[in-house]
Amino acid sequence: MMTRYFLLLIFAISFCASLSAQTHTRLYASALASDDPAAFMGGSSIGGGLWTSDDDGKNWTHLGWQHTKGYSVATDDSSNGNIIFSACGNGVIGSRDGGVNWRMLTDWRVAEVLDIYVGTQKKITIATASGFYSSLDSGEHWSTMNDGMPEPRYCARLFFYNKQQTLLAATSNGLYSYSGKEKSWKQDKRYTQSIKDIDTLSDGSLLVLTENGALYRDGKMIVRPLAKRGQLWCLAHSDTTIIIGGERGVFFYGEDHVLKLQSQSPKNAHSILCTDGEIFIASLSGGVYRVDIGEEDLEFTPLGLEKLQVWSLRSAVIK
Amino acid sequence: MQLRKYIVVIILLACVQGVSYGQSQKLKRETLEAIAHKDYNPTFSAIAAQLRIGTDDTKTYKQLDAMLDREYGDMFWMYECAGFYFSCKDILPDSYKEKIRECWKKFTPYRGDTENHFLMYYGSLFLMSEEWDSLDGSEWFMGRSSQEIRFESKEWLEHWIDETVKSGQTEFDSPRYLYYYITPLILLAEYSRDTLIKKKSSMMLEWMLASYGSKYMNGSYAGAHSRESNESAIAPTSGEATSYGEYFFEDSVRHLLPDVAFAAMTSFEIPEVIRQIARARKAAHECTEIVRSRRRIRFEKPPVKKIKKYTYLTNAYALGSIEGGIVQPIQQRTWSLVLNSSQKNNAIIGLHPYFSAQELGTFFPEEPAFMLQKIEGVKQGYVSEDKWVGASPYETIWQRRNEVRCSYNIPQDAVNRHVDLFFPDWGNIIDCDSTIWRQITINYDSVHITLNTETDFSLTHTPGGYRVRLRLQDNKTSYWLSVISKNDSRVVNSDANMFLGKDVYQDQEFDKWLIHSPFVESKYGSGIIKIQYGASERILNFVKATTVEKLTESGR
After folding, report:
1. A2 versus B431: which is more confidently predicted?
2. Is the bond leading into A152 cis (omega within 30 degrees of zero)?
3. Chain A closest-CA separation from residue B363 CA (Å)
4. Residue B215 burial (C-beta neighbours within 10 Å; 0-12, 13-18, 19+)
5. B168: helix, coil or strand?
6. How would you classify the pairing of strands A174-179 and A184-187?
7. Looking at CA atoms only, how far is residue B159 from chain A in angstroms?
8. Measured between CB atoms, does B151 come within 8 Å of chain A?
9. What is the 3-state secondary structure (H, E, C) of chain A?
10. Is the backbone of residue A286 left (phi > 0), alpha (psi -120 to 50) or beta?
């Protein structure tokens, strides 16, 4: 009997080990353009696009269209990284074969797609510089999704809040949540400033970062805005540590509840990704960095893409 | 019955007689020759001219190879490539046609974010999807079939035309970007197989040229502008639009840019009535217009604002403005006085040299603070305190015919806290008192200009002219500029109302008209544009997609 249990245990361990050996996290970096001074804003997107890495950022491969202003990317979780949606200045470009072939999914009405959320049952939501659209058929058809959202409707971040099973939008007018039942956006009155990023802590509490540098936890301000910090753009957490990126670099909010600028950090830190215990930061000034949490400070290791204005980092689990 | 037929024939004959066009074959040939022999950085349009004229084919094809080998990133490549393809289709070897086909399969040009970008993008996609009309998605960079691309492009083109002729343009009156409207429209008007798009593109071209012609002054684009460069701000004939202005309105082209080759290879000729408006109008008159702001994505609402635009034109000068505030980012020209002169620098302008992350963030989706760090790489001079283009949120402008008053209330935290005016240095300064009377009077040929300022100013030499710099007092300053020419009988004398913002055009309702002048008029929202000069009248009816030209009663 003991032998049978022992064999079963060995089998279970080896099965799990084989599973974990076959899965890994794929990183996606969306870039606006190269670091050429003229490749910037408006019609300039030379060098922009989508890059991926299957080895924690050591090597990067360009995927899809050249010279497209890339803002964000999302994958269909059920597709094992095959169904990809790239949110671009041009609209949404989609691939169904892991990035070999691509197709423009939106038309002239849709521009400057700043973020994308892929839900269940082929539902996609996109946030643009001037409003929201949704598709119920994996991007084949789109309709506007602006009820309840006043103009201007600039939104750079969509976030699915698991605790409330709600889609949140970080807009220049504040934080909004979408009610699928009422098919309408509703403002969270606690956050009426320009919101840049959202995250949840392990206890489900909601972190909200405002553009002027205030950090809220479940509606309570835990970091006050301070002009000298410059504009703050992105947020993530790891255990008890909150990391915030912005114009002046990366800030570290530890157990002492003080937001400290990391002197060695990359400027214009625009996206932070915490995945599998690793932390990555992307900079508009160029490059992706791995972040290691030291005793008091953060350490930054450059991982490449240093000549690209990287707007965002996303990930997908690949089997 | 016989009599009725007879009358119909007579009317038809009268209509036909009324239609005449410019652009002789001689001008077209000379333009092509000149472009073919000019030493440009290689462009598709210059290469097309060289092939058509038959210069050094070996060198030309080498340049073409280079243009087709490197993937360029945007819609500027697209419209040029489409223009080249259609202009030279009959003489181009099949191997090059195939090479071009491959480019449209593999290259992934960016669509951009402005009105002119979209026109170049969808205009060229429309033409190319008509040419290769039954390919599936795998043959196009977008992954869409020819039919899908054609449908979307046509939908956008119709939407843009309808919106523009009814509600006004956002990139209005641009001495730079008009060039990038005229070229794609000429290509669509000439090469489209779709009769509706062909017709409407031709009508749009006429409408844009009529609007331009009604503010054209000897190569200069008069009035306020949505977007222009620092150089053309003080030397208006250096703007790209001048190249087309001279081609369409004059008998020779001095400011020769290569895209005009595309125009010279088409059958399009400007109706004589538009040419006359540009060349022959003499009497002083007013032109009021409604234009639209660029879409504002943050900080302001509504996203698109209706803007009043006014130009007072005489034979000697044109003074034009829009209301103050930021309508277009970075390159706006809020008011200008253009002198009808052959001098290179013939514009008088004024501005508060404002810049901010907020201005950039209002119109562009990237992070405002980051844009401000990088802006100098792409729009040089934006943060300069000495710049000559750009708008300010702290500026209010009132104009009444030959007078303009600009007032400024600039807060302490604004970066550049002064106001500048540019005066060309070929004028004769009659009087300059910077602290007591605070007045400058200056003559340019027959034009007499008086500037009165609310605060002290300095006068210094700057390339091409004088810089008048006004200091602020309690955050404020203002100036009043009055122009008089010998032959202008309609000038007004200043009175208190002018300083209260009364009886100025900004105070008047002219929402009824999209454009209203003795030469071009259109009721707002109608989509019908009347172009007239003397006895000739041309009606562009965009609702019915018809053009009618006739002689009016006075001309028969």
Report:
1. B431
2. yes
3. 9
4. buried
5. coil
6. antiparallel
7. 10
8. no
9. CHHHHHHHHHHHHHHHHHHHHHCEEEEEEEEEEECCCCCCCCCCCCCCEEEEECCCCCCCEEECCCCCCEEEEEECHHHCCCCEEEEECCCEEEECCCCCCCEECCCCCCCCEEEEEECCCCCEEEEECCEEEEECCCCCCCEECCCCCCCCCCEEEEEEEHHHCEEEEEECCEEEEEECCCCEEEECCCCCCCEEEEEECCCCCEEEEECCCCEEECCEEEECCCHHHCCEEEEEEECCEEEEEECCEEEEECCCCCEEECCCCCCCEEEEEEECCEEEEEECCCCEEEEEECCCCEEEEECCCCCEEEEEEEEEEEC
10. left
Where is average pLDDT lowest: B221-235, B286-300, B376-390? B376-390
What are the pLDDT digits (tens) for B461-512?
999 999 999 999 999 999 999 999 976 666 666 666 777 777 788 777 778 9
Say what the pTM is.
0.93
What does the pLDDT average to over B104-129? Answer: 96
Classify residue B310 by its DSSP letter: E
B155 and A CB contact within 8 Å: yes
Chain A interface disruption, residue of B76, B297, B358, B375, most A CBs within 10 A? B297
Q: Is B108 on the interface with A (CB under 8 A)?
A: yes
B71 touches A: beta carbon within 8 Å? yes
Reported as a single tens digit per residue, the pLDDT across A62-108 is 999 988 999 999 999 899 999 999 999 999 999 999 999 999 999 99
Of A131, A37, A77, the closest CA to residue A317 belongs to A77
pLDDT of residue A5: 63
CB contact under 8 A, B156 and A32: no
Q: CB–CB of B303 and A152 under 8 A?
A: yes
Spatial CA neighbour of A130 closest among A103, A150, A104: A150
The angle subtended at Cα B524 by Cα B520 and Cα B527, nearest 5°, is 75
Helix (H) or strand (E) holding B420, with range, is: strand B419-424
Nearest CA in chain A to B376: A37
ipTM of the complex: 0.92
Q: Looking at this protein, which amino acid is placed at residue B443? A: N
Residues of B in contact with A130 (CB under 8 A): 295, 297, 303
B369 touches chain A (CB under 8 A): yes
Q: Of A65, A103, A284, which is closest to B144 when you measure between CB atoms?
A: A103
How confident is the model at residue B16, as a pLDDT? 38
Provide the residue type at B524 as one letter.
Y
CA distance B367 to chain A (A): 9
Model pLDDT, residue B18: 43
| pLDDT of B174 strictly over 90 | yes
Determine the Cα–Cα distance for residues B265 and B189; give it in Å rounded to an integer.
12
Partner-chain contact B71 A114, CB within 8 Å: no
Measured distance CA(A195)–CA(A156) in Å, rounded: 9
End-to-end CA distance of chain B: 24
Residue B554, pLDDT score: 59
Distance from CA of A303 to the nearest CA of B (A): 22
> Which of A46, A111, A152 lies closest to B300 in CB terms?
A152
Distance CA(B356)–CA(B339), nearest Å, equals: 32
Q: Which two tokens stand for residue A313?
A: 């980092």
Please answer yes or no on whether B364 and A42 come within 8 Å at the CB atom.
Answer: yes
- Amino acid making up residue A47: G
CB A281 within 8 A of CB A250: yes
3-class DSSP state of B246: helix
Q: With contacts defined as CB-CB under 8 Å, which chain B residues touch A247? A: 367, 369-370
pLDDT at B489: 63
* CB within 8 Å: A101 and B118: no
d(CA B142, CA B139): 9
- State the Cα–Cα distance between residues A199 and A234, nearest whole angstrom: 9
pLDDT at A21 over 70: no
